[in-house]
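TICKET #2291
ISSUE: user wants both folds in one file
ATTACHMENT 1:
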Amino acid sequence: MKRYISVFFLLICAFCSAQDISKQKQLDAKRTSQIPKIDGVLDDECWNNVPVATDFFQIRPNPGRVETHDRRTEMKVLYDDVAIYVYARMYDHPDSVSHELVSRDNIGNADFISIIVDPFYDKMNGNGFFVTAAGVQFDAKYSQVGDEDANWNAVWESAVKLDDKGWTCEIKIPYSALRFSGKDIQNWGLNFSRRIQRSNTQTFWNFVDPKVNGFINQEGLWTGIKDIKPPLRLSFSPYISAYVNHYPVNLPGVKNTTSRFNGGMDVKYGINNSFTLDMTLVPDFGQVQSDNRILNLTPFEVKFNENRQFFTEGTELFNKGDLFYSKRIGSIPSYYDYSGVGNDKIIKDQTEAKVLNATKISGRTAKGLGIGIFNAVTNRMETEVEDAQGNLRRVETQPLTNYNILVFDQSLKNNSSATFINSNVLRQGSAYDANVTALLFNLNNKGNKYFVNGSGKMSYLKGKETSTGYSYGVKFGKQSGNFLWSYSQQYADDKFDPSDLGFFTNNNFLDQVLDFHYNIYKPSSWYNQFLSYFNILYSRRAMPGSFQTFSVEGGPYVQFKNLWSAEINGIYTAAKNDFYESRNGQVYKAPESFGFALYINPNRARAYNFGGNIRYKEQELFKGKEYNFYFFQNLRINDKIAFGLDLNFNPNYNYVNWVTAQGDKAVFSKYDRRTVENSFDAKYTFTNLMGFTVVLRHYWSDRRNKEYFLLKPDGNLTDYTGAPLSGLDRNYNVFNIDLIYTWQFAPGSTLSVSYKDAAETYDTYYTERYNKNLSGILNAPQNNSLSVKVLYYVDYLDLKKKRKKLE
């Protein structure tokens, strides 16, 4: 009898929960006159008689399932004139709660709770505040279709406690961390999310359907917020830093050891309720992690990740249209002029231009108009050279440069938008200037099921020669449901060039892509999630029209019940006309190729986990083969200490590519190549506010040419019979150590100590043996740097309160 009652009860619960999924949840706002103590202990009287948000829905592994009673979540929210206060009780077995200590803005192997708010309730933009069971904070901004900007940082308070019922959390979010209107009565978009790491379970208070495109648009509602006023948002973050650098130049008149002191300040000012000014004056980016440099044998530039916080935080408006590659500003400039160097020997080449200042103004009006203004100025770059007589001099290789971006982004109904964006690069002197303008649109139907988006772009380069180029793109399809599809077309003429402030590999193309996805989010008896895709690419050169390439690609991804996952994909590329490999515009008839890959990822909740991938690709010509074996392993000793090791081995055999030029003729070679990349990382986190990390990376890659060929006018290769070629083999090594200690000694304030070691060798042929290359790079001249930086956060309102108390 009990069994039938239980079954009947479960059926009722399933029916009720099914009804609740489609209904938007609401939580009544309650004002408090008593400020809770943010200590993680939920015993403040103000929490009594406050509406409770509970009955969270899973998004994974069982979308729509209501959380169980013994794993239930209870959330409460209060507000007053200065802040929002959050109460969170997460029921669980105390010994099962994951709580690894990691640095701020990381989750690690830990459970978390979060609150996501949409103060303007436009269902497009929001702010998320996450706290792990170890007390680590993570915050992010969310834009129209659920894009997460994890680089956004705010200053707020939180505290957690573990007890016999699970764990608890209290949060204080000051209004200075948010943007909202000054209306007397407001309704905010609201959602809560919880993750249980060991079972990879994530739940939301208001159901977020994985089959529906978007995230913020599936929020709940916080109603009846009364009489709150946006505060003056003004903060200063002055810093000082000191560096000692040693490099064995060993040249007369050039010091091996140098030192420098820096000072500057970041300023954040709320211009009004909606717009914020961010400014960095004489910034210091010397402590950011080193770029992972590689031996690049392709005709295209390598794109690196941006690690400088100012250029990653709050840049969602400027990233629209793919016209903003922030590494152009200081780190990887697009313009170098070595005409003044001549035949002189380069002694010291400046690879980064000093950023003198940078400013961002961004925000969105109550009517949904987003406005972004960006400006940055970099100093001139100089290269030190030595002439035949041993005289040293400096040559300007890049002038003083000004970078600008202007964006207008109008939000429309149904998560749609229309955007105007302009980027402008102005250089001092005779160097050319660049301007790019784009119009973008993104339209969704009422149910957010179908979409169409597109762009029109124009580039204008002005200097000794003037050129104007054009590009357009259009894409439409189905974006919600289990079955998804899209068709896209991209065009660029032979003069379109946005690379002065953007990242762009080539122009003069007409690409068409047909894309299909079939996803199953409902678990079965053996998997939690099954995803699959298939796409077809057809590309032509635009001017003059000519076939370029055709490829098909596809494969499935599955997450198993044990939380391991696997992905298999295959790709076939037909014989193609490659107009870029020759470096002179001549066509190269590249052979057809095919490849496949297998990716294995473990259950990362385990203290020791490992995974990796195997990839294979074969070229028809000379039966060229490429293998890639990647293996990683992670070991978590305890919640404070963890290690990681990544090993990558990538051998190529009988591959054919361009190697050099002889006059206007392109020379190709058949070669073997071996690439080995090993990296080791470790972290020791003392508390949720203090810890250190270290990353060691060694990269070795070579090119051993076996035969040479001449590219014929018809695009085929013929045996090279010219003068003997030499010096074209390559052997490149790079070694880096990045060690940094960080202490957040006050809200928003940090002390960081960084040690860096870097070495690079090129065209130095040791041996084919890996250990000899490692020994060689370790014995090569090392560039060592030790730095200390102190940044102190000052909130003007807090400073004002302290002054009043003193008076």
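ATTACHMENT 2:
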Amino acid sequence: MAYRQLSRRLGVTTKGQREEIFAHIKVLRKNGLITLLQNDEYRLADADAVAAALMPSSAKKGGKKGESAVAPPRNLSVQAQFGQDPIVHRRRSAGFDYVDGDDRPDRAPSNTIIGTVDLATPSFAFVVPEGTDNGDDIRVFTDQLKFALQGDVVRVRLRSGSRDGRPMGDVVEVLKRVRPEIVGQLQVQGTLGFVKADNRKVYFDVFVPPHLLHDARTGDKVLVRINEFPTDNHRQPVGEVVRNFGQAGGNEAEINAIMAEFGLPFEFPSEVEEESEGISEVIEQDEIARRRDFRNITTFTIDPADAKDFDDALSIRQLENGHWEVGVHIADVTHYVRPGTELEREGKHRATSVYLVDRVIPMLPERLSNGLCSLRPNEDKLTFSAVFELDENGKLYESWFGKTIIHSDRRFSYEEAQERIESKEGDYAVEINVLNDMAHKICAQRFKQGAITFETQEVKFRLDENGKPLGVYVKERKDAHKMIEEFMLLANRKVAEFVFNLKKTKPRFTMVYRVHEAPEPERLQTFALFAQKFGYKLKLDNPKKISTELNNLSSEVVGKPEQNVLQGLAIRTMAKAIYTTEPLGHFGLAFAHYSHFTSPIRRYPDMMAHRLLEHYLEGGKNVPAEPVEEECKHSSAREKLAANAERASIKFKQVEFMVDEIGNTFKGVVSGLTERGMYIEIEENKCEGMVRLSDIPGDEFELDKDNYRIVGRRTKRIIQFGDVMEVVVKSANLLDRTIDFELVDNRPDYVKKREADERKNRGGGAPRGYRDYDKGGKGGGMAKGAHKGNKRR
């Protein structure tokens, strides 16, 4: 507690009473019963008193007759790691230290706002007001969050004044706790358990009484469900271990913990599996009769070598007029997954398959995703198709959409298809090369119309049988990948245009669109200033020339040290693509209308698009937009969650790979700068780690965030984004998923020794481990380098 809090609790009002309080505090400190922290805050130092204070009433029950339910710890090892306060990171400012029970002045009900919690750092969160897109987010320090977590709905009482231009407030009520579960590492001292969250933004630890540990031990990675949230900030939430993933640091424990952290399912409910197993494999003759038959037309799939769910196939044949008929055939998932079924409910909830480094968490059970719906070779399969008449230059003459049946003649891996493109030899080489030539011309036309070329690099791993990474590499996109992508883009675009044009007046027919809005002018100007530091001049004030300017930059930076930094930040400058019923177009692809139609095995919005398209092809009336829009929002949110989980699994595997590289030297580029250190991305494997500013040899460095660089105080040496550095791997922390580097120091040994002695005498040296907390507010800022994720069209 802070001195001011203590004084108010005791009713202190006069100078004499304050002096008496100080006298008592001096005695308590002298006797070692309390410890001074900072900002006049004091903490109990007696272990028994700490244990008793932390223990909620529910934890004191139980145990054998005559025995205490819990044994207080005899040392402070747990507190040394977790701290005795449930909220470790505190921030004090005038009027901030009100807590429950204080005589805070009443506020008018009109001064409260309902919103959703968005955790920013362990020190503060933002509450995003409901029902508005342009209202200012409210900054709430974690002392005043009432233990609300990410996504919880709260009522906030506004304060007077603001911080960093944002309104401030305190949570007065948690209206809805979305997911009161936390993943973290368990520490047990005596019989008391504490769980420290893996998510660094979670600002409190969870107390677990002995009878709710369920045989979990110190060092285990666990999922704990919070059963009791305290009414004040001086107790910790009480939880129960509901899943034990095993000792922290192991592959299964950490990947399963990532799944739990992001709320990903571990298995399908039994009723969903039973329903999928009950679907017949037999395709009835009357079903075939209702469909256009493509079984006698050359058809093949092209997918990754390790893929098992083939949801798209291409067919090709030459027409009498010399044109080519190209069919984009998509698994007819909605034929098997019917509305109102358990399969439908589960698919809608999951909304997307999730691709972690060493496993896939499918949207649909394997019986469907790898069996009934997968377009496996030499089997009749039901499909929903977009069929195009094209000439050899990729010019489109006719389009047709409808239900079909196909029979794939060949399953190609991307590597096998690439061999046909490069050698012009092998089975179906002629057909593949015709398609590839058309794809090149369609792509060129797309870029001519304003599509943007920036792409993120996708990191892949070579794993052994136990999931341990043996190598890290960047996935190379060759013509075979681009060919398939181009025809999928064509199908998605034409399906969207077809539905949009069915009705010429508003309201248009309801459809699921994949929308990517143009970037905000302010963000573009910020990026232009950043690029200018590297010598690139961008004119981004003309909306019609934005894509041209960005594409020119993309071409100029190829092969240069700053390539990944600039391309990554350019992508971050763009708006995020979402699902919606509003036909707002796709800025990045330069399409007026765009949908997702081609991956219904792994994306629920594609299933929605299939149902809507089928409905309109059969002459159905317009579908109400509101329920479709709600499903679009849910799918967008699940897609974001899946992307975050995928990134977390990649980061863990990168750290695991670097464990065996400690002491080795690599070349990398500066990919991010903060007040505490600079991030270096290794060129050959894209693993990113931190070099502390305090560890840079030869000078003391400070962040010049306005110019995206750090500057030495004495030497004025400048280090900025994109600079090439040689680093030595210092440490790799599997639990924190962090990597520490130190710069290669080629100075003479006597100079190094002198500097080390100076640091030692100053009491310097950086603390072990680091945590990447944004300093500048919600969403971070341009000063921190882009973290790469999978590209999602």
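RESOLUTION: both attachments delivered.
EXTRA DETAIL ON ATTACHMENT 2: DSSP finds 19 helices and 33 strands in the chain.
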